[in-house]
């Protein structure tokens, strides 16, 4: 039995980086959480602290298969997010995005509940417009190595809007820009985890290309606050809404900042730029500011400090030092 305003909330991909933080915040708010994950990139370690909470339930399940549960709200985060992981089995990535979205939308339709979609800045592809407002349709290669993810997420957005128009399901679509923080996957090849681990091990820091390409990095706590505020909006707010930190840095600047914060003896080395790697990316968050009264508050050096502390503990605990 549940009391007051507390809900039972489904989080798919709940054992992953963002999902585990979201589950934690929802529990803090007094909700019950059903975490559904196939543990492809997520781990029990990410949710270890939550497993002892009677209001938290973990279900190992692949969202490409139907799911019949009873919940009051759905956050759909299941999908590998880093190029290394989503290119490992590209067909499964596309299925997770598309069939996973269909199943979760079918569930939302049957239960008549709100559903949140973790979309991505990758729907903009390698953009000709900078920074990217939500109205921009993007420039995506439909047949490249990133397409399973980019086009999968674009198709998921299409499905969300069609279910909304056709079946009147309340939807909340967030386009998430690069996010970092504790519990990022150590081997997913994303730039923050790579560089932090390399710096802590005094190993060579790998910059792809000349390191002048830019990204804007959002600390995970700021992003999750944006999720909660978006979910709390009225039915007229569907998104898509950009969520990210508008502070733009080159990858070289990021590496220099991590070297300084860790006091590392690492050298910077260069590796070839991966195909279709966007030159620059930064969110235009005008809409999120107006609709959610939200903007990131954690500066890069502070967020990196917390991330470095996490990976230091991780290296000690797992003996991967
Ligand atoms: P993550 O890889 O840590 O988490 C994804 C989770 O989904 C993992 O726990 C994984 O095991 C699970 N999963 C994958 N396929 C599944 C399936 N078929 N069935 C059930 N579970 C499955 O990645 P993350 O960074 O936490 O990303 C979460 C979501 O946010 C993803 O949808 C991603 O596309 C989106 N996103 C993340 C970022 C970012 O910077 N982290 C940026 C844009 C979008
Ligand atoms: N579905 C699900 N859980 C539910 C309801 C539906 O997993 O509680 C899945 C179901 O397998 C279906 C998909 O969601 O394939 C889409 O549902 P919808 O009702 O839109 O389609 P239909 O069942 O009419 O094909
Ligand atoms: N990158 C890098 N060194 C690394 C990993 C990534 O220079 O060890 C670069 C990568 O080429 C890209 C940027 O950092 O330009 C961000 O990469 P990431 O995979 O984190 O995210 P995405 O490309 O999806 O934004």
Automatic annotation (TrEMBL):
Its cofactor is NAD(+). Pathway: Nucleotide-sugar biosynthesis; UDP-alpha-D-xylose biosynthesis; UDP-alpha-D-xylose from UDP-alpha-D-glucuronate: step 1/1. Residues 10-306 form the NAD(P)-binding domain. InterPro entries: NAD(P)-bd_dom (IPR016040), NAD(P)-bd_dom_sf (IPR036291), UXS-like (IPR044516). It is found in: Golgi apparatus, Golgi stack membrane. Its EC number is 4.1.1.35. The keyword Nucleus does not apply. It is a single-pass type II membrane protein. GO terms for molecular function: UDP-glucuronate decarboxylase activity. Keywords: Decarboxylase, Golgi apparatus, Lyase, Membrane, NAD, Signal-anchor, Transmembrane, Transmembrane helix. The keyword Lyase applies. Pfam families: GDP_Man_Dehyd. Its main location: Golgi. Belongs to the NAD(P)-dependent epimerase/dehydratase family. UDP-glucuronic acid decarboxylase subfamily. This is UDP-glucuronate decarboxylase. It comes from Methylobacterium goesingense.
């Amino acid at each position: 039995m549940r009391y007051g305003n507390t809900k039972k909330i489904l989080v798919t991909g709940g054992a992953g980086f963002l999902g585990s933080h979201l589950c934690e915040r929802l529990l803090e708010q007094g909700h019950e959480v059903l975490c559904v994950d196939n543990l492809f990139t997520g781990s029990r370690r990410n949710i270890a602290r939550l497993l002892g909470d009677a209001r938290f339930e973990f279900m190992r399940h692949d969202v490409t298969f139907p799911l019949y549960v009873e919940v009051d709200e759905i956050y759909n985060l299941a999908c590998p997010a880093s190029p290394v992981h989503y290119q490992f089995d590209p067909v499964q990535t596309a299925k997770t995005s598309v069939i996973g979205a269909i199943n979760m939308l079918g569930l939302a339709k049957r239960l008549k509940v709100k559903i949140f979609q973790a979309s991505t800045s990758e729907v903009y592809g390698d953009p000709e417009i900078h920074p990217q407002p939500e109205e921009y349709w993007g420039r995506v290669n439909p047949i490249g190595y990133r397409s399973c993810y980019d086009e999968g997420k674009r198709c998921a957005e299409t499905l969300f809007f069609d279910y909304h128009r056709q079946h009147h399901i309340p939807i909340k679509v967030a386009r998430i820009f690069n996010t970092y923080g504790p519990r990022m996957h150590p081997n997913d090849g994303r730039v923050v985890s790579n560089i932090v681990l390399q710096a802590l091990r005094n190993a060579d820091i790998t910059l792809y290309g000349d390191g002048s390409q830019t990204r804007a990095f959002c600390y995970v706590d700021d992003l999750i606050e944006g999720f909660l505020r978006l979910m709390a909006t009225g039915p007229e707010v569907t998104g898509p809404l950009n969520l990210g930190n508008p502070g733009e840095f080159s990858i070289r600047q990021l590496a220099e900042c991590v070297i300084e914060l860790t006091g590392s003896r690492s050298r910077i080395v260069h590796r070839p730029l991966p195909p279709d790697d966007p030159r620059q990316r930064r969110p235009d968050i005008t809409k999120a500011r107006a609709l959610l009264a939200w903007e990131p508050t954690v500066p890069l050096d502070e967020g990196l400090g917390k991330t470095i502390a996490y990976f230091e503990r991780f290296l000690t605990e797992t003996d991967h030092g």
